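Hi V.,

You were right to ask for the full record rather than a summary. Here it is.
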Amino acid sequence: MSSSTPSTANGTDSKTYKGERSPCDPSRVLHVRKVPIEVSEAEVISLGVPFGKVTNLLMLKGKNQAFIEMASEEAAITMVNYYTAATPHVRNQPVYIQYSNHRELKTDNLPNQGALDGQNIYNGCCTLRVEFSKLTSLNVKYNNDKSRDFTRLDLPSGDGQPTLDPSMQTAFGAPGIISSPYPGAAGFAPAIGFHQAGLSMQTMPGALGPLTIPSSAMTGRMTIHGMAPTIIHSVLLVSNLNPDSISPHGLFILFGVYGDVHRVKILFNKKENALIQMADATQAQLAMSHLNGQRLHGKVIRVTISKHQTVQLPREGQEDQGLTKDFSGSPLHRFKKPGSKNFQNIFPPSATLHLSNIPPSTTDDFLKDLFAGSGYTVKAFKFFQKDRKMALIQLGSVEEAIQALIDLHNHDLGENHHLRVSFSKSTI
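Predicted structure:
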């Protein structure tokens, strides 16, 4: 290892840059701007953990900046794509993430230290000692300032206070789902999952600050002051729809590309408008950023955040004409599985569609005829060379591709295979 400037107590000054590249090129090192000066290292790290392993961190508090190093360039690209569409907030302030012109962050003592062992909480004192426990599992009975199970938000606090309100349990997803880098149906927040016997944190090397991730590190749907949660709206208002062609199911399939849709309501007296309840506010913002201004059934649709917090189901006996549907239990949710690759494949609408779950016996002519027979112009088709379960198909326009995705996603191809359709970042 080459020597560099002397290390401070937390190791920050010992980091130097290695390698240069254009700021426009993808890099696994990400530059974070407008970071609040009081923010902890753990809160900055929590921005990266949903997308993969965080391998290093450099805080420049005096400049309100930070550098996050991801384990892979792919993880960094996914992170930048996601946060370009949905601006992340730390301590209620927006922060901005872009590729750094540095290829990696280099720490002198990196091979010799555990994730946090030997690091100081304060300069020169309160040195942490971290080692593996003999326990094979960790049983937490209470959620309070002494213990917390981040996968069980329904646990009591142990001091006579009631458990989490049922509506908040729903907002966070089912107990036990937040246990991996991709928290599944619960969206991207809380960003950290703790599993096995000790601190997971993806076993990150370097001086990575506090031992636990504070509640304020949660992103997307919540602002934490003490422990009083506030739901940020996750309901979208979609306007300028074509009332003759739209259906709750069609909106469910389209908006489901960007998150798990729980409810859809086409307004009874104004059928050009609909309310769509997403699983959380981050997914709502993501869907809005990708679908606002797109053409659907010949109309340019507008997508904004609604003032409503939930979509109400019709009361019994109330006339509805099937305009309101509850999809919360649908098997077609794309993001219900923790660690799903779907999180890495969220792209804007494009004329080229990605097809998957194709049976081995299916030919290119069959798939081209399927789309052409449904009224779409097939300009090009290509199976993936290494995996014929997947293919790309290019249609006549983005509008055609949007409509084809709605019509043919989950189409029964036989042999117990249902076609999966999503937007592609590639062209043929």
